[in-house]
Amino acid sequence: MNYEKIEKSAQTRKKVVNVVVYVLLSIWAIMVLFPFYWMILTSFQSYSAYNSEYIPQLFTLSPTLQNYVDAFTTVPLARYFTNTLIFTLATTGIMLVVTVLAAFAFARMEFKGKNIVFTLFLSLMMIPSELVIITNYVTITNLEMRNTFMGLILPSVTSVFYIYLLKENFAQIPDELYYAAKVDGTSDFRYLRRVMIPICKHTIVTITILKVIECWNSYVWPRLITDNQLYYLVSNGIQEIRENGFGRENIPAMMAAVVVISVPLIVLFLIFHKKIMAGVARGGTKG
Amino acid sequence: MEKNNLKAWLYLLPAIAFLGVFMVYPLIDVFIYSFEEGYNSASQTFFGVGTYNYSYVLHDPYFLQAVKNTFILVFITVPISTGLALLISVGLSSIKALKNLYQTIYFLPYVTNTLAVGLVFMILFKKTPYTDGLANLIISWFGGGSIDFIGGPYWAKMFVLCFYTVWVVLPFKILILTSALASVRQDYYNAAKVDGTSKLRIFTRITLPMISPTLFYLIITGFIGAFKAYSDVVALFGTDLNAAEMNTIVGYVYDMLYGNSGGYPSYASAAAIILFAIVLTITCINLLVSKKHVHYN
Question: What's the number of domains chain A is made of?
Fold first, then answer.
């Protein structure tokens, strides 16, 4: 009787709330996906078709690949792409070596002044990059490393936070393993390579992915240090395309370039999305 | 553990060398620069030592515009993005089907190039002779007149900037808040249910206090990040931000250093230190407030 009625109304209320939640979540999902859809759509439209649409259309009936051809032939997009790839791989690689060695020293070795040095390292985490970039710019200019890969890579290598993250992980490995390895006559370096790195693979993969994302999207430092198109990274390339790009304001070709430079990270994300999200939740920030 | 000083320092050497050259030395140097008056970057000479650079920067109308823009951006986007992220995360944690799909979609902007997607936003909002743009089309459905969001009135440009900033920062916040919500112990909710507590009361009395450390962490990092806004602004309005009246403090620093108005590392250093002081002050205020309101267990 009355009780049934209450239960029924509670159930309908629950259903209504559920529907509302799904609708709101879907609205935001559309907000997130729409710019991506729009850039793909525009990139397949021909220049004349795009510009004759006074009222933008949500689909196209005559897709063309011409913009992608333009993006690779009219502007040195392939060059920007290779530069970014070299920059990303080199920076991430050097960063990994530096980070692993430092984390190992802090986690495994005993030396005078260890605590002081570690505290100093930690305090460097609070230094905003805007503060040090000015002198770095002058340093690199004085070393005549503008428009070189060295100039791009060297100041981007260090990440105190990753050293900290990895050190914490290394420190969790039980000491017994180390002593056992010592008894067997294993050298420190071999122990690091054969035992510690495999055990902490998870953290290493995380910081690698975070660094790759950071490198692929970096804009400020490359902009300061390169003014020769031959050394532009994708972010600077996009800015260059936007300002003097295709001779005229060719938005579809611009969008094709945008699609091309966005695809690698999106593919990487779709493959590793669980790892990336877990990694960012553990140690990521933006900006 | 045995002591092996030399070897340990050898392992640390690369990190110390990189940090020394590219972080510690610049950090000292930036203060020196900021007090050197009339520094000439070509001849590397200066006239004297004093606070002229600071007073120049503080009286520069471009800097004041940049400070105003940055503060508006910060105080609009941080509350909106944090609130929205909380709303979305609560919604996410209340559903089961499609939860992973939504989570993955929401995270997508995090991995995309800010400049590239900013260009798409620019096109959506820009008004050209050919078209009013999609944003204006939607406005016209609701009977509004068309506005040029990229080259038009100040508030319109600020709106686009805030909108884009929120779009860019939400993925991180949603991710962190969803995992914080998932880690609230189910016992508390069950106990509340037994007592017949209302949903709203459960949210304000259990959920919010339990996730308050995360929430404050996000607010603090949100403030710091928003104060450093730059590349999303460039993405929307191009590199000549002073002309667009859309410069930010970080943009001002870089403009002073490099580009058409560049070549003044002293002014850039002074501006950077002022920015650092502002961020430090706001962070301290945040920490003080959080001490009162955050529940740590």
Answer: 2
